Amino acid sequence: MKTSLRFGCLVALLLTALAAPAWTQTATYAIQGAKIYTMAGPPIEGGTVVIAGGKIIAVGKDVKVPSGAKVINAKGLEVYPGMFDPVTQLGLQEVSAVAATVDVSEVGAYNPDVVAATAVNPASEHIPVVRASGITEALSVPGVSGGLGGGGGNVIGGQASAIYTSGWTYDDLMIKKSVAMSINWPSFETRTFDFVTFTIRERPFSEVKQAYEKRINELTEWLDRTRHYAQAMEKGPGTYQRDLKLEALVPVVQGKLPLLVVANQARDIRNAVEYCEKQNLKMILAGGADAWKVKELLKEKNISVVLGPTERLPLHEDDAYDQSFATPGELNAAGVTIAFASFANEFSRRLPYYAGNAVAYGLPREEALKAVTVNAAKIFGLEGELGTIQPGKVANILVTDGDLLELRTGLRYLFIKGVLTSQENKHHQLYEEYSKRP
Amino acid sequence: MKRALFAAIFALGVLAAPAARAQSGGVTLIKNATILTVTHGTIEHGSILIRNGKIAAVGKDLKAPDGATVIDASGQYVMPGIIDCHSHIAVDGDVNEGSISVSSMVNIADVLNPEDIDIYRDLAGGVTTANILHGSANAIGGQTIVIKLRWGKPASDLPFEGALPGIKFALGENPKRSNFTPPPGVPVRYPRTRMGVEETIREAFVEAKEYKTKWDDYNRPKAAGEQNLIPPRRDEKLEPLVEVLEGKRYVHAHCYVADEILMLLRVAKEFGFKVRTFQHVLEGYKVAEEIAKAGAGASTFSDWWAYKMEAYDAIPYNAALMTDRGVVVSINSDSGEEARHLNQEAAKSMHWGGLSYNDALKLVTLNPAIQLGIDKRVGSIDVGKDADLVIYNHDPLSVYAVAQKTIIDGQVYFDRERDIAQRAELEKEKKALLEKEKKSAAPAERKDEKKPNGANRPPKAVSF
Amino acid sequence: MPQRMMRRCVGLFAGLGAACALVVLLFAPATRAQGGEPRSFAIKGARIVPVSGPTIEHGTVVVVNGLIQAVGADVAIPPEAWVIDGKGLTVYPGLIDAMTDLGIVSAEAGPPQGGAGAGRGARRQIVPSEIAMGPEDRPGTTPWEIAANEIKPDDKRIETWRSAGFTATLSSPKGGIFPGQGSVIDLAGERAGEMVVKSPATLDIAFTPVGGFWSFPGSLMGVVAYVRQVFEDTKWYEQAEPVYAAHTKGLERPVYDRTERTIARALANKELVLIPGNNDIQIRRALRLIQEWNLRAAIYGAQQGYLTVAEMAAKKIPVLVNLRWPEAEKDADPDADVSLRELQFRDRAPSSPAALAKAGVKFAFYSGGINSPRDILKNAKKAIDAGLAQDVALRAFTMDAAEILGVDDRLGSIEPGKIANLVVADGDLFNEKTKIKNVFVDGQRFEIHEPERPKEPPKGNMTGKWTLNYTTPEGQESSTLDVTMGPDGTLSGTFTGRRGTSAISSAWLSGNTFHFTISITMGPAPTDVNFSGTFDGNSLKGNISVGGFSTEFTGTRPGGGMMAAAEN
Description:
The complex is a heterotrimer of chains A (438), B (464) and C (568).
Chain A: H1 4-16, E1 29-36, E2 44-52, E3 55-60, E4 70-73, E5 78-81, E6 83-88, H2 116-119, H3 126-131, E7 135-140, E8 156-164, H4 170-173, E9 174-184, E10 191-194, E11 199-202, H5 205-234, H6 244-253, E12 259-263, H7 266-278, E13 283-287, H8 295-300, E14 305-307, H9 323-333, E15 338-340, H10 351-360, H11 365-370, H12 374-379, E16 397-400, E17 411-416, E18 419-420, H13 426-435
Helix pairs in contact in A: 5-6, 9-10
Chain B: H1 2-16, H2 18-24, E1 27-36, E2 42-51, E3 54-59, E4 69-72, E5 77-80, E6 82-87, H3 117-123, E7 127-132, E8 140-148, E9 166-170, H4 194-223, H5 239-245, E10 250-255, H6 258-271, E11 277-280, H7 288-294, E12 297-300, H8 318-324, E13 329-331, H9 342-351, H10 357-362, H11 366-371, E14 389-392, E15 403-408, E16 411-415, H12 416-441
Parallel strand pairs in B: 1-4, 1-5, 6-7, 9-10, 10-11, 11-12, 12-13
Antiparallel strand pairs in B: 1-2, 2-3, 5-14, 7-8, 8-9, 14-15, 15-16
Helix pairs in contact in B: 1-2, 4-5, 4-6
Chain C: H1 3-16, E1 31-33, E2 40-48, E3 56-64, E4 67-72, E5 82-85, E6 90-93, E7 95-100, H2 147-150, H3 156-163, E8 166-171, E9 180-186, H4 192-195, E10 196-204, H5 220-246, H6 258-268, E11 272-277, H7 280-292, E12 297-301, H8 309-315, E13 319-322, H9 340-348, H10 352-359, E14 363-366, H11 374-385, H12 390-397, H13 399-404, E15 422-425, E16 436-441, E17 444-448, E18 464-472, E19 475-485, E20 491-497, E21 500-510, E22 513-522, E23 525-535, E24 539-546, E25 549-556
Parallel strand pairs in C: 2-5, 2-6, 7-8, 10-11, 11-12, 12-13, 13-14
Antiparallel strand pairs in C: 1-17, 2-3, 3-4, 6-15, 8-9, 9-10, 15-16, 16-17, 18-19, 18-25, 19-20, 20-21, 21-22, 22-23, 23-24, 24-25
Helix pairs in contact in C: 5-6, 8-10
């Protein structure tokens, strides 16, 4: 076999060839004989999953296959829930260096009203690439770019949207329009980059601290104004002048919409946690390079962590060389809920490897699997529909020829919303085209 | 911080104790390992005998000579040290002399920084040799050097002995500055197009040829005994280009798209030099035939794409496709981070494009060694080669593999156990130094003045 | 007050457009030459440390016409000599600060022939004509600038250095890669020419990129490549020039290049080439390049010399040790993760001189940007505490410095015939309590008055970075005062305004009143500007006076005081 992926693609193409476009068809399927990682209990050896109407209707060792179901013999294969990448710019960014293709950060520091889903391009080449690697759900997050966080000057970046990695339109893609408010926690930027001389300069701490406090005061002012606005709203329409930005922040101050706080340095994380507690806001930490230093605090305050790419260098020279690989295990051991995220469309397909590396450095494999599937769903309040293989959940399912977290594992079948979905994508097309070049 | 201490220990050791040297002349036996030789298959429960920094024997039933250091690698894997064909670690100061379009006068060898912590981090990822390149801000960039990651040794001990030096070329968006705007007052630099990149390189080689002629014209009569000759000036910019023309210096060309790859091959043909490697070469799969025919190597990424326009047609099948067409391919890091898991990046080529296990392994061992002209010395586990090895706890082409020991010239430069064992101690040293500093920084108590007693102490609070 | 100075103050005034004729000088200099003093002195019955020989416990030094005439336990005193009772005093050779820009008021060398000029103060706007596109544009290159030609005798620092016992320095032009040639100067004189002892003495090189990203060279490796090319060009010039001179007919005329010519002359003149090297990597690089370029050179910096002594000793390269030891930034991030490597460096840097001495490397000390000359000896004391023998420390300030700079035939020890540069102190020089009583420069006596000290203990702590706001005839201005307060209220630090950065002097907080003086360049020469007023714990309020012109100012400390917590 030349490549497991190609084989998978071929099977998928064969199965869907008669029924284009694939994702409008929701047939009944039975995946039989596989090892099923439900993520809601121990793996089931030689089990069956039944999919119908876009949902999982049965899973177990002795499940009756409904008549008319298309049966997939998955003996020797493994079944997992689809993976969830909880920080991406999927659909918002095509080529990061080409401004015209980037819709990530709005102008100005406070943009709570902008919503990622609005600008998600369903035809982005990234989406098929990403799903061919088993990512079936993603958060598209405005205002957050790059592996270490920090948007284009955004403090409040906007509302993150949860999307499926398959769909013709806005409505097709949508899981939930607004699942979190993204915020780049103002950091103590003691080093600034001077674009004239292309050098890094140290700034005096007092100056930096002042700039930080100014930002925090601004943020507080936004929240205070929002609280007043929320009171005014209760009196009914027509009694107040509408303000779209404040309106967007109302669910945040009411604790209905969590803040997705991008912070990496220990001090920034501590400051954010303290602030959110004081302001009574629901916080999810994103990035978290230094999270291992404050794991007790995160556990105590019950704050989940969406980890930035673990393939990153330690923040400080003296940090252990393997700190970024060991952090997931350390957080998990401290009782903190973690999810892996790519923070970048191009690297979304590395998600399982981040998890696999973490296993190599101490994270139990089962926890690693959860951290690429159900944990993100839980963190963003979507576990009712997503993240596990349980009856009633959306049928986002991967059938692989091996360990999901391994480098050489191929994806045989990909179900998104119960549809056996094509794995064809730009990369594979180019591969096919040029491997045939005479 | 352990690295800092290692540095200190090594630095002192190297200078003061010939014993440290003697150790490398000592004998080590690695036994009970799964040995991935790259050139002659896998040996289960095998042993490697190291003597004087070289591999003295490889086989199933080797006995440890008297006095040999024995490393029991039961259940572990040994592979050749990873060779990173594109790295920017260990550089003091900027990796780009970005001001000018031809910066061949600058030389990475002048600014090696043996204390860059990324050397240690990459060593901990199994890398033993790296090709340290100038950045890609110029059509013709600076001179480059191959080093071994001999962490703790001074800069003069890093260069890979006998490896041919190189020079960085760069094509496409970076040399033509597509992705940033200079600040006010800075004139736009030539070139701004891929056409201009070609002309910049051609012009430099025309100059280099004229320069060589000038010297020949001077040397001939000079050798014949003629006096009163004014020699040409030595030109630090053109000397390395003459070396390229004479085959004494390798060209490592940063490139992305197919057309510029072919452009450089045409220019090389015009002036009679060879392109040793195309670096990144993300569209190499489109012109693999031509690259193979020119005898150039290709050093690429595993799965990077879409970070700029010229990387939009990048595909993770690139390494496999080029290999299929007969190109010598390596996977490089271009980053101190990515270098920490090049074994995994190599493994991806089995997934994307179906390379065999051994071909995947070659991408980060023998192939980059060939590309750098050091394959007689490193790149596989063969008798007579340098004992540059990595020991992993799992199959190195697995996501679960963690490097346990990295060995260069028979010396253990990274040892995971030792690293972990030393963490607490180094933390302690750091704390002690911080405290000492705090103490001496605190304003000294005025010894000559009496401490205020009750009489002149200000009242705590005044109320009326 | 010399008349010259008064005229300047008036001129300055006119320049500022302030219509005031009255010149009020609030603070007299702490040290002055005594008028009508004789040309010969005898310091009698003092402890004499000649450095060139053993210490004389009760001896006499005779100074005549600027030179040392005799020294010994029992020497004749000429009848016309002014006799100074040396009882309880120790006489040392005058100290030498082996690398400074003392006397060179504009911190910049003249405009270079190219180069965007970063490193001479960050410049926001890049001037296209200054962008260098290669070595041929000679960026940051002004080797023809010779310190002796630039010396301004009224640089206030000359006096403060002298008051701390320094009688000579190597002064060098600053800025760029080849900033110019250094001169050894004596720290006293009405006119620059009187001060010069040897000029030019050194050819200075800095490895600081001058181009930013946009102009050559913008990187360290670019600078090294550039310097290499310049030495190649110089070598070429040395070969080409005589050939052409002898055969002008039929040979192509060599292009005139001021840089090549100047450097060729400096090398022929056997000037000491100064190459930077502070940490181990830089030192090793410097050693390698000195060999490659075949230079008669010294390495300056050398603070991590403790790691490289063996190699330095093997190459027999002299060293100038920077006494401004690495330390934490005053306004550093308290949570910053300072690396162990950096902490080790800060801890061990002062042990470098001892290590160099042990390995037999010849070295001198230099102030390296220390603002207050009192700190120079204080920092040398740190090296002594870290194992350096006191007599070696003294040699580094005197004889060894003179030898390295090639002036040991006239400076560096108390020997008959040498220039009468002396320090007379009431005790051991490296003892913090010791007071310097007299300094002789070229046989001229200066009496040292202790700088004005605060009378009351300070109320509060002024340490921190202040923003000062005031209005001048030129409009609204704002400056930064970066200051550290000692326990007795003494202030030290720097003042940065639109005219540049200056060290503060005569600076103290006494009770709630403070004072400091800065020296800035307004018009042709440096001028004292006095700041005084009150400190209420959080803000400053007071007057700025320049000559008779004065204006009010206020000061705030953004981010609060660093030391506020230490107050309770």
